[in-house]
Design goal:
Layout lengths: L17 H8 L22 H27 L17 H14 L4 H6 L7 H14 L36 E5 L4 H6 L10 H7 L15 H5 L1 E5 L13 H18 L3 E5 L1 H12 L11 E7 L8 E6 L11 H50 L2
Helix pairs in contact: 3-5, 9-10
Amino acid sequence: MSASKSGLDLDSDSRPDPRDKYSSETSSIKDEDNLPAPSMVSCIPSTFNGALEHFAFQSSALTSLTINKSRSSSGPMPLPRPTKRKAPEQTASSALKRTTRSSVSASPSPQTLATRDTSTPSTHTRQISSMISAAQVSPTKKTKRASSTYAPPSTYAHLPNLLTDSLAPSLLVLFIGVNPGLRTASSGHAYAHPSNLFWKLLHSSGCTPRRCLPSEDHDLPHLYSLGHTNIVTRATKDAGQLSKAEMDEGVAVLEEKVRKWKPEAVCLVGKGIWESVWRVWKGRGIKKEEFRWGWQDERFAAEEGWSGARIFVATSTSGLAASMRPAEKEAVWRGLGEWVVARRAEREKEAKAETKERVIEMEMKAEREIECAVRGD
């Protein structure tokens, strides 16, 4: 069939352009059912290139219709907000490298360098100098607490000191502290500051079956056969405000207390106490290789007829003594707690045996009295 018989004039310039029809309808069409048919026989081009153009036009027309429809139904489409990216942390060295790279890429020509005034530093030179200075500054470190210096007794003489010793005969352990803190002195109870780990370590080590309160310090002797005292009686903010002379003078006082009450062991709560005892006994300071935590070979306050108390050196429980971690302190204290648990069990066993012997003696005595009464003696 020829083109004239089909009614199509393919070579005529008057052939209707489908794009004119689509462009007039895209602004008014709001319903999907009103879209024109994708294929229109009356406007299909006969050439291959024309078919490709027609297909591309149809695709773009459908896309624009879909966008116009969504805009007309939901209002203008908001523009996406740009996401703010967190700038990477800039260090002095990275900034110095970037500045150096940019300076190399934008280096001036030899003519510019010849005409430049070298009497004053350029902006780039000042930037490099500032970067180098920033790189040479050491990173900020946590400032250490300044160590305390000696404070004479008059410093805290106006404050009350209500703390007293908690002692009894034949204690399992007598705990010897350095001196009362300000909170302890004002409250009258040992190791009363909330940051002090004494009562926590006393329980976690096994010396007490529960965690006691500072207000129970005077109940320790009859509850758990434990007591406490100090090598220096006056109160200070921390042990650093005491002198070595004060510490050494307190050793003789401790020996008198230990000989009087005769505990099985003494626990020196802090390395400084053992150093004072060593200075008094040996006449010199203790060497680094001579010091060790835990049980010592020496005995405390030995005298004729009594071998003296065993010595256990424990860590300081003060919250200001942060040279050791809590886990390390617990490991040291656990050695004392294991001994206390074992020794307390032995004492209970011995007490039961003594009680049984007394009962047997009383029964035998009662039987003898009955026999004497029967015989009429």
